[in-house]
Amino acid sequence: MDALLIMVLAFVGYILAYRLYGRYLxxxxxxxAADAKVPARELQDGVDFVPTKKEVIFGHHFTxxxxxxxxxxxxxxxxxxxxxxxxxxxxxxxxMGAVHDFGALIISMRNQGKSVSxxxxxxxxxxxxxxxxxxxxxxxxxxTAIFGLVIAVIFAMYPGSVLPVWLEIPIAMALGWAVYKRGxxxxxxxxxxxxxxxxxxxxxxxxxxxxxxxxxxxxxxxxTLILLAYAFVASVLPVTTLLQPRDFINSHQLMIxxxxxxxxxxxxxxxxxxxxxxxxxxxxxxxxxxxxxxxxITIACGAISGFHSLVSSGTSAxxxxxxxxxxxxxxxxxxxxxxxxxxxxxxxxxxIGLGYTTKAGASLAGVGAWTAHYSSWTAAAGLGSKISxxxxxxxxxxxxxGMPHAIALVIMGVFVASFAGTTLDTATRVQRYVLxxxxxxxxxESFRNKYVATFxxxxxxxxxxxxTGAGGKGALTLWPLFGAVNQVLAALVLTVITLYLLQRGSWxxxxxxxxxxxxxxxxxxxxxxxxxxxxxxxxxxxxxxxxMVLVIAAWVVVExxxxxxxxLGGTPTPAxxxxx
Amino acid sequence: xxxxxxxxxxxxxxxxxxxVARAEAxxxxxYEVGEMENIFALLTLxxxxxxxxxPMQLTLELLPLMERDLLLMLEKVDTASDxxxxxxxxxxxx
Amino acid sequence: MCSEVAExxxxxxxxxxxxxxxxxxxxxxxxxxxxxxxCRVLLLSLDPAHNQADIFERPFSGRPQAxxxxxxxxxxxxxxxxxxxxxxxxxHVRRAYAYHAAFNLDRWLDVLHDSPGIEEYGLxxxxxxxxxxxxxxxxxxxxxxxxxxxxKFLRLPRLSLRWISHLQNLxxxxxxxKEIVHRIRLGGRELETDRxxxxxxxxxxxxxxxxxxxxNPAATRIHLVFNPEELSIRETVRICEGLRxxxxxxxxHPLLNKATGKEFTLPPDLFPGRTVPRLPLSDRPLFGLRALxxxxxxxxxxMDFLLR
Lengths: 580, 94, 308
Hints:
The complex is a heterotrimer of chains A (580), B (94) and C (308).
Chain A: H1 2-29, H2 39-42, H3 54-65, H4 69-77, H5 82-109, H6 116-123, H7 128-157, H8 162-181, H9 186-206, H10 219-236, H11 243-271, H12 291-298, H13 308-319, H14 325-349, E1 356-357, E2 363-364, H15 366-374, H16 383-399, H17 405-440, H18 450-467, H19 472-503, H20 509-537, H21 540-568
Antiparallel strand pairs in A: 1-2
Chain B: H1 2-45, H2 56-62, H3 67-81, H4 84-91
Chain C: E1 11-16, H1 23-36, E2 41-45, H2 51-55, E3 65-68, E4 71-75, H3 78-96, H4 99-111, H5 118-133, E5 139-143, H6 147-186, H7 195-214, E6 220-226, H8 230-245, E7 252-259, E8 278-280, H9 289-299
Parallel strand pairs in C: 1-5, 1-6, 2-4, 2-5, 6-7, 7-8
Antiparallel strand pairs in C: 3-4
Helix pairs in contact in C: 1-9, 3-4, 3-5, 5-6, 6-7
């Protein structure tokens, strides 16, 4: 019952926050006006700048930001207890994350749809462009390594998911062929494709594929290599062959999964004795980093994530038809992502308690089931156990309305893996561009060749993955690094929003300055602790990467503070912002 | 009466969902087409920007028909100098 | 020969060569010879040096004038054709574009007068004009400009076709994808016909027709005029290579002009398997119709190659 209560309270809380705080920010602080000029209309060109219905933008924006991040982060972070994770997800998104996404969208919209790195260089200074490139480069490198490991870990734990995840490729390609080449009806065939996918889930559950250990490389290592090779191949294919239809299928999966989760919580509340088995707070679990500051780095997507600003200032800002729509799109989609994270917390802290069968065959329930996953940071294969807590917890809840456990396990495993799989493809594509920009400007002409750049992108991720052990433990080591880079970017964008509000003479700058300072402090704290830890472990690669992020974080702080002080002292920003 | 209102509402929801689905299904392709048109414009009209171009008369023959492409090309220069945000949101990286 | 019937029975004899080889005179002689043999001839000078005015001792203009029996001549002012063309482009642009865009483009278009590519296009436009208009002739004799411009003229159709084919493919690919997007977004509404693709196809047809004509040995002859001395021969070799590259070598006809009495053997590999007609150096200046016909009377057999 308490799980249902928490879910309902959280959802009501989000709606209230949207209506109260969100609207307040929108009308009083950012002063959104229905009759204000928007780039979608002013610069309308039928290509990029197209006024679009807010629901359509929301759909695209939300699926762009939602993915594996809001699932894996909370799944790990509940090791510190369900309460801190829940509070951070709930409050963090309302006062920090959604404000960040919202603000980035508005500033972009009021700067002719220019991207976040452009308006950052306008409000702070042009040097910050390089920061963006480096941050994106590091983040994509880490994401590719981690998500490859995530999928590998899922394959290792749920061999039944191997078949459906790989079969999604031909299914997506067939959908792409039907819709793009033969002109078949989109909605009809995508429903068919999703249905076929769930059929393969049933097949996979009955035909698990186990990867043997090859030449001393553990199963996860081999899977990681295969997945990175897949990333290479997929990223050089035309977009309509695989990526577009696959992404489309995934967005359906997301809706369905969220629906199943909500339904699961609801029904379990009445038909089982589901309760929170996780401790409310556990500040220093064995071998784990401490709650302060690592909670705030571990859960990025779901609370606040710097990368959302790229999405806000990408196509969304160019499509908003009416300034007031930006509340729904920017603030609303972050809150929706948060609600997904809330469901994840419930699944990993309550749903898991409904029962868990260990590899050895022991049947656990209640607290025992939870501790099997969260007794220590690296308990039971590190990241794998954390993801398993989610998958099993969710499956348990779905069992309550009649879904067979084995099928539910595979559905959830496939869901997480599919999103991670698409990220592998797209991250490689963007990294290819980033690498060729970074290295051709340094004089390495061979990076102009798309295959060279792609290969380096994939190889670098492979090196990072193997440098940390190519397994669940490795992914767990990398996750805080991923979070730290993400939060550095978030701090930077929050600083820009603060400067924007300061420049407009609104006292509201305090509302974004506090989150900015909070993120800076937490990120720095975590980075310094990690640097010490990597030094002790002697892991040079991680030291270098972590060190780079530290330097970038320091740079962000210095630039931000300098600009802030200058602005307080009365120096206006250089370029003209048309009176808004 | 109430049933009719409900039906209309549901129909409205369905249509909206359909629109969202259609937009999702085509957004990457649309982006790609936009970029291809940009390339086409650069190839044919690039003479005005000092780019290697077809024999001048081809450019001139097509010029009167390519106002929209010319303007788009000028706009896309902005994106070209900083495409990260576009890439992140079109490709759904996260 | 002149009554052979084909779809287009006209023939086009180009005369090109290094400056000073006597190609203008050679083309004038050829025109007179053919006219005397019963063909209706138009002598068209594409050479900005306008030597024909000197040779026939009278001014010429763009409008063909009768020079002798069945013989008419005209001189093309390339600048006139370029001007005319650019004006029509400006007109189209002004009509098609919104005012502010047209306003800026106007100034750009002025600079195009001197851009590479415009000169030879002017000549092509002129050539096509006369080809279109002069239907009641049997032969058009063309006195070409200096070698480099002449080669650009001859290369232009091929070069344009390469670009056109590439652009056409790209455009068709774009349209295919747009159609897919339209179908998905709007359930298959008709896309309006793409005028750019239409124009590309039209241009393609234009150049294809020109390329076919130039590459057809039954209709086109490109006479390479050269002199019996080293530099001239070397240049001719280069021109031959150039023509081979654009597959016009089948239409190539060498002509050794200003041959002196001295024994002169051509390098055997220059024009393998062909006898190269020779025109002797005239002992008096060839100016005026009378002098031209006088020379022809003496040398008529040597000009028979024109009739084969």
